[in-house]
Amino acid sequence: MSSWLQFWAGSDSVGRTVALALLLMSVSSWTLILWRSVTLTRARRSLARALPLFWAAPDWDSARSQAQALDAERILLPLIDAGRAPLPAGSLGEGAGNEARLTRQLRDALHQSVARLQFGQVLLASVGATAPFVGLFGTVWGVYQALLGLGAGGLPSIDRIAGPVGEALVMTAAGLAVAIPAVLAYNWFGKRVAACEAELEGFAHDLREFLKSRP
């Protein structure tokens, strides 16, 4: 913390902008990590409980009601409603066959649910990819500023070089500290999203086959 404060006190506007950018990346990524950890865990749990109850229900209305009560993240209900959603009169979709219409509506609902599950993944990937380079830029800029100060202040020495350069290296460490949790969370969330997506794809396929046999 003292090295960070020393860097902040001795840096110019560019160095402070880099430090603030890393702080913003860290706050946004950790907020997203904590929030998505809760929502994805809840989504997995909801799917595990709602799907068996849906197929065990005696009729469509009760099956939908049970799924709605358990679908906290609203990733299952769009698929259920898509199977019975009417089309506007006179539309191109209305002229297509029932199977084509059903396939299209289930596919669109599946994409909507998967997009909801993947929310925030782009931010985590961006932070993980760019934070080390932002920190490295802050280090290079800090070393450059330190060398300029040494050049204007007489003969250089190890003591005069080590302090400013050590403070500048804190930015590289800060960039890695921001990037590593974001990358780990991105990979972990990707695995959980893929598991939920597989469950939803299987449910969409089963729902399509069920509705095809109904008038």
From TrEMBL:
Belongs to the exbB/tolQ family. It is a multi-pass membrane protein. The accessory proteins ExbB and ExbD seem to form a complex with TonB. This is Biopolymer transport protein ExbB. InterPro entries: ExbB/TolQ_transport, MotA_ExbB_proton_chnl. PANTHER family: BIOPOLYMER TRANSPORT PROTEIN EXBB (PTHR30625:SF14), PROTEIN TOLQ (PTHR30625). Its main location: membrane. Keywords: Cell inner membrane, Cell membrane, Membrane, Protein transport, Transmembrane, Transmembrane helix, Transport. It comes from Inhella proteolytica. It is found in: Cell inner membrane; Membrane. One of its GO terms (biological process) is protein import. It holds the Pfam family MotA_ExbB. The lineage of its organism: Bacteria, Pseudomonadati, Pseudomonadota, Betaproteobacteria, Burkholderiales.
